[in-house]
Amino acid sequence: MEDESETALASHKSLCNYSKFLKHEVEDLIPLDWLAIHSDLEFKLYFNSSIPQGYGVGSSGALVAAFYDRYAFDKISPQEVLNYQKLNHLKSIFATMESYFHGESSGLDPLNSYLSLPLLIHSKDKIETIALSEQNLRGKGAVFLIDTGRRGEQPLWFLFL
């Protein structure tokens, strides 16, 4: 690890603990490349993200998506046609993987991070990806993230209509 900063070391330690959780909780759900995981951890793997941690804006979802993308065997690719079944299967996998950080998870944050596409949520089990354009949004509102500098349970998103 070139960056021996306190943050990188704490992230590495967290990833070591996370991998232990995955070994016990996710092994039956999705096969992971444990040789690659152990090798990367041995080389002091850490998570470097521009998403602030502890604010509730998706840092754990981004980590889960990155872990799945790098280490999952037989993964569902974001480039393939994603029907409701595939999206729900991914959401279920991601919910289990993200539960390490929150106790419970809907799986939506990691799904959104993994796909890099907006999601239209009709119901718990009916999700689809959509394309957003400026034309589609005109007069219908938008969501903005504003960094208030406060960590924890304070809401950081606002819906403007």
Outline:
The chain is built from six helices and four strands; from the N terminus they run H-H-H-H-H-E-E-H-E-E. The chain has helices at residues 6-25, 34-42, 59-71, 84-102, 108-115, 134-137, and strands at residues 119-123, 126-129, 142-145, 157-160.
Could you explain how this protein is built, in words?
The chain has one domain (6-132). It is 45% helix and 11% strand. The protein has helices spanning 6-25, 34-42, 59-71, 84-102, 108-115, 134-137; strands at residues 119-123, 126-129, 142-145, 157-160. The strands form 2 sheets. The protein has a two-stranded antiparallel sheet with strand order 1-2. Strand 1 and strand 2 (126-129) form a beta hairpin.
Helices and strands, with pairings:
Blueprint: H1 6-25, H2 34-42, H3 59-71, H4 84-102, H5 108-115, E1 119-123, E2 126-129, H6 134-137, E3 142-145, E4 157-160
Antiparallel strand pairs: 1-2, 3-4
